[in-house]
Design a protein that fits this description.
Order of helices and strands: HEEHEEEEEEEE
Helix content: 10-25%
Distance between the termini: 51 Å
CATH class of one domain: Mainly Beta
Radius of gyration: 25 Å
CATH architecture of one domain: Beta Barrel
CATH superfamily of one domain: RNA polymerase II/Efflux pump adaptor protein, barrel-sandwich hybrid domain
Structural class: alpha+beta
């Protein structure tokens, strides 16, 4: 059975309302395709947040100032994001006793290594695809990262 046949079976099972599972067994090959059960009841989980502290009357903040604060933290539109090309563990240097690949304020050029992502015991150097200045590092060292997760913000030259 080739990949096209498997893809066709997956499409078939997902498009049919009355088919929930398909099982195929050949000589040395067994394939089971199941739709997730739709009649599973999930109970909502509630988390009680602490009550906000009352502000004294002298601490009144105008609504316009409150709404302006989040916009100031939004990244500038001219910044380019270097994203993770894979799932793994993010490292800022090649080993704990080595210097960091890049710091905030460093200039990077296309092809310069900016970090390492370890995936399945393989250490992959991630290279910059843009020239510019590192404005912000978005991930802590030795943290897990997802595919396409932003790692750095770069101000292009």
């Amino acid at each position: 059975m080739d990949i096209k046949e498997i893809e066709n079976l997956i499409r078939f099972v997902s498009s049919q309302k009355n088919v929930g599972e398909v099982e195929i067994a050949q000589k040395d090959f067994k394939l089971v395709i199941r739709k997730p059960s739709t009649n599973v009841i999930q109970t909502p989980q509630y988390i009680q947040a602490p009550a906000p502290a009352a502000l004294p009357a002298s601490a009144h903040v105008p609504v316009a100032e409150v709404n302006a604060a989040p916009a100031a933290e939004a990244p500038a539109s001219n910044l380019i994001t270097i994203k993770s090309p894979m799932i793994g563990t993010f490292y800022r240097s090649s080993s704990p006793d080595k210097p960091l690949f890049v710091n905030v304020g460093d200039e990077v050029k296309v092809g310069k290594a900016v970090c390492i992502i370890e995936a399945m015991k393989l250490f992959n150097e991630i290279e910059s695809e843009v020239s510019g200045k590192i404005v912000k590092v978005l991930v802590d060292n030795a943290s897990p990262v997802e595919y396409d997760q932003p790692l750095f913000l770069v101000e292009p030259n």
